[in-house]
C-alpha cells in the first residue's frame, strides 16, 4: 500500500511489517489445543478454594425454570423471569457462592476494566452507587448477592453443582436435567447462562504436574499459601520465589501485588498486553447526587455508541475505551488533511497505529530499563487483544525483585520439579501461578460441561456439527423447545458485557411474558428462520470493516488463537455491531407477531 506519510510521526509500512512478524512468530498449528483441559489428572487446578461444599441429599423436583449459571447473566435472567410472574425459579451454579466469573476471580487486584457505573447492572433499580469508578472484586461480588436477594433468587440456588446432561421429554413438555450431585430436575424452561469465563485453562507444556513446589491457577487463588486477600497484602511471600505465567488482563492485575510481596518474581511473557492508564478514583458524591432518573441506561448507551464508532457530541464515560475509539473518530470529525480522501479502512488503520504508538511511548516513559521496556511494547493492532488499563503494572518492572522473562512469542518450554524453563534457561522457583485465563474458543459442551439432547435425541453440538451453528438471534434453536441461550455467538459483541446480558435477558423475558399471557406451553424457532439468521450472521462478517481480534492479529482468544475457522463463520457475532443487533431484536419483539417461531399450547400436545 502506497501513501503519503509526510506528516505522520511513524512509518506505516514499517509497523505493518513489524506487526506481521510478531504475529507469524506466535502462530501455532494446535490453536486452542495448546491448552490443557483442567480435568482428570489436572482436576486439582479447578478445585474450589473459596467455599466448602456441604453434603446434601439429591434433589427430585419439578420447577418452572432452571437457570444455568450464577453470574450476572443468570441473575438477570432470573430477575426477568421473576418479573414475568414465574414463581419456582432455581439457579444452578458450580461455585460455592453466586457470582460466576466474579466468584472465581477473587485473585489479588481483580477489578473492573469497564467503568463500574455502566458495568454493574441494575444500579438504579436497587438504589446503589459503586464506591469507586472501577470497582474491585469484593464489591462486585457483593452486588451479585444484592441482585439475588432482591429478586428472591438466593435461598433456592443450587450451589456447588453442575448440570451433566438434559433431555427434552416431548410427552410431558419438560426438560429432564441431571447433575453432578445426582439431582433429577424437571423444568419447563431452561436458560443457559454459564458465561464465557469460568473454566480455567493451563498451558500444555511438559512437566506441569511434576513441579514439587506450590502451584495454582489465578481463578483458584491459594490465600492459605500467599496470605492477604483480594485487595492485596500477600504477607506470606516474603521468602518465596514466584513465577507468574501469563501477562493478559489477569496477569496485569495480579503482578503488582505479587511483586510487592514476593522475595523475587519472575514474569513469563509470550505476548505483552497494551497498557493504558486507568485513573481510578472514589465516586464523587456530588456527581452521584446530581444524576437524574434513567442515568445508567443513558450512560450505557452512550458508551456503547462511542466504542461502536458512532460519533457523539458528548462522551459521558470518557475513559480509556472511549478515547481509543475517539482518536479514530476525531479524524473523521475534524477532517484531518493527512487522512482526507483515504479509504475508511486505511483511516482506521492509521489512527490505530497512532494510538498504539502512544501506548508504546508510555512504556518508555515508565520502565527504566530500555531492554525491558522494549520487550513490554505491544506490536499489534488495538483490539487484537483485550486492552488493559493499569497504573501500577509497568512500574512493577522497576523493582529489583522483578525479572521479566520474555519468550519472544514462543511461551515457556517446560516445567521441571524445581521451576520453569524458558529460552533454554531453568528458573528455580517455589511457587508457580498460572495467569493463563479461561477457555473461550473450545467446544460448547466442553466449556459448559453438559450435553443438551433435543426432540430427536441429538445433542446441540451434534446438530451444529452438521451444518454449523443454527439459532434465532443466538438464543433459540429448532428442536430444543423452551431452551434459551444467553451468549454473544450469533448475537451482539459489546465491550461492556453486562449490557449484552441485560439486553438478552430482557429479550427472553418478553418472549416468556407473551407465552404466559397467551397460554402457550412451548416455543422454538422454525428451521427456516434460524437458517435465515445464520446466513445473515455470515453475510454480516463478510461485509464488516475491521473488527475485534481479526485474522491478521497476533493469536489470542479473540481470534481462535490465530487459527482460521474453516468454512462460513456461523458462530460469529453480528458483525454489523451491537447497536444494529439490539435494534433488530427490539423490532422483532415489538412487532407482536414473533415471526419465525412456533408456539404450542397444551391442547396441541
TrEMBL record:
Keyword Cytoplasm: no
InterPro entries linked to this entry: FAD-binding_Monooxygenases, FAD/NAD-bd_sf
GO MF term list: monooxygenase activity
Database matches in Pfam families: Pyr_redox_3
Record key words, sorted: FAD, Flavoprotein, Monooxygenase, NADP, Oxidoreductase
SUPFAM superfamilies named in the record: FAD/NAD(P)-binding domain
Cofactors named for this entry: FAD
Residue ranges of coiled coil: none
Similarity comment: family membership: Belongs to the FAD-binding monooxygenase family.
PANTHER family: BLR3857 PROTEIN, L-ORNITHINE N(5)-MONOOXYGENASE-RELATED
Protein name (record): Unannotated protein
Organism this protein belongs to: freshwater metagenome
Amino acid at each position: 500500500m502506497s501513501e503519503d506519510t509526510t506528516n505522520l510521526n511513524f512509518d506505516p509500512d514499517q509497523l505493518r511489517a513489524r506487526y506481521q512478524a510478531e504475529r507469524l512468530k506466535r502462530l501455532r498449528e494446535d490453536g486452542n489445543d495448546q491448552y490443557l483441559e483442567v480435568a482428570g489428572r489436572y482436576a486439582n487446578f479447578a478445585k474450589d478454594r473459596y467455599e466448602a461444599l456441604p453434603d446434601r441429599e439429591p434433589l427430585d423436583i419439578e420447577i418452572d425454570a432452571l437457570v444455568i449459571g450464577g453470574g450476572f447473566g443468570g441473575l438477570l435472567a432470573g430477575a426477568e423471569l421473576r418479573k414475568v410472574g414465574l414463581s419456582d425459579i432455581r439457579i444452578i451454579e458450580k461455585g460455592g457462592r453466586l457470582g460466576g466469573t466474579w466468584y472465581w476471580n477473587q485473585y489479588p487486584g481483580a477489578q473492573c476494566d469497564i467503568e463500574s457505573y455502566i458495568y454493574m447492572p441494575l444500579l438504579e433499580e436497587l438504589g446503589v452507587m459503586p464506591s469507586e469508578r472501577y470497582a474491585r472484586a469484593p464489591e462486585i461480588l457483593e452486588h451479585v448477592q444484592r441482585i439475588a436477594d432482591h429478586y428472591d433468587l438466593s435461598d433456592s440456588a443450587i450451589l456447588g453443582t453442575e448440570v451433566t446432561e438434559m433431555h427434552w421429554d416431548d410427552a410431558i413438555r419438560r426438560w429432564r436435567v441431571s447433575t453432578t450431585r445426582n439431582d433429577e430436575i424437571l423444568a419447563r424452561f431452561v436458560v443457559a447462562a454459564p458465561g464465557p469465563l469460568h473454566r480455567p485453562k493451563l498451558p500444555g507444556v511438559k512437566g506441569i504436574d511434576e513441579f514439587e513446589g506450590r502451584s495454582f491457577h489465578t481463578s483458584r487463588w491459594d490465600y492459605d499459601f500467599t496470605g492477604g486477600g483480594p485487595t492485596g497484602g500477600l504477607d506470606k511471600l516474603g521468602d518465596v520465589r514466584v513465577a507468574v505465567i501469563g501477562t493478559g488482563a489477569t496477569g496485569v492485575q495480579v503482578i503488582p501485588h505479587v511483586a510487592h510481596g514476593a522475595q523475587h518474581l519472575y514474569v513469563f511473557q509470550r505476548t505483552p498486553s497494551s497498557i493504558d492508564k486507568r485513573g481510578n478514583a472514589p465516586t464523587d458524591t456530588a456527581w452521584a447526587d446530581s444524576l437524574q432518573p434513567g442515568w445508567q441506561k443513558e450512560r450505557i448507551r452512550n458508551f456503547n455508541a462511542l466504542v461502536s464508532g458512532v460519533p457523539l457530541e458528548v462522551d459521558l464515560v470518557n475513559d480509556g475505551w472511549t478515547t481509543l475509539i475517539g482518536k479514530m473518530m476525531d479524524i473523521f470529525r475534524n477532517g484531518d488533511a493527512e487522512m482526507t480522501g483515504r479509504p475508511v479502512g486505511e483511516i482506521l488503520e492509521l489512527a490505530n497505529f497512532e494510538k498504539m504508538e502512544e501506548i508504546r511511548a508510555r512504556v518508555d516513559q515508565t520502565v527504566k530499563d530500555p531492554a525491558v521496556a522494549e520487550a513490554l511494547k505491544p506490536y499489534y493492532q488495538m483490539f487484537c487483544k483485550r486492552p488493559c488499563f493499569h497504573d501500577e503494572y509497568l512500574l512493577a518492572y522497576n523493582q529489583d525483585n522483578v525479572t521479566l522473562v520474555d519468550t519472544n512469542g514462543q511461551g515457556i518450554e517446560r516445567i521441571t520439579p524445581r521451576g520453569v524453563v524458558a529460552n533454554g534457561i531453568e528458573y528455580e522457583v517455589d511457587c508457580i501461578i498460572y495467569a493463563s485465563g479461561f477457555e473461550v474458543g473450545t467446544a460448547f459442551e466442553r466449556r459448559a460441561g453438559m450435553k443438551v439432547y433435543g426432540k430427536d435425541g441429538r445433542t446441540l453440538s451434534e446438530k451444529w456439527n452438521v451444518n454449523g451453528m443454527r439459532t434465532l438471534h443466538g438464543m433459540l434453536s429448532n428442536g430444543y423447545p423452551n431452551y434459551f441461550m444467553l451468549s454473544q455467538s450469533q448475537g451482539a459483541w459489546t465491550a461492556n458485557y453486562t449490557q449484552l446480558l441485560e439486553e438478552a435477558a430482557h429479550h427472553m423475558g418478553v418472549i416468556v411474558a407473551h407465552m404466559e399471557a397467551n397460554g402457550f406451553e412451548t416455543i422454538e424457532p422454525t428451521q427456516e428462520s434460524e437458517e435465515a439468521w445464520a446466513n445473515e450472521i455470515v453475510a454480516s462478517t463478510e461485509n464488516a470493516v475491521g473488527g475485534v481480534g481479526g485474522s491478521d492479529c497476533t493469536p489470542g482468544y479473540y481470534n481462535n488463537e490465530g487459527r482460521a475457522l474453516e468454512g462460513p463463520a456461523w458462530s460469529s457475532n453480528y458483525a454489523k455491531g451491537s447497536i444494529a443487533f439490539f435494534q433488530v431484536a427490539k423490532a422483532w419483539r415489538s412487532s407482536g407477531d414473533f415471526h419465525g417461531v412456533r408456539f404450542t399450547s397444551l391442547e396441541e400436545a
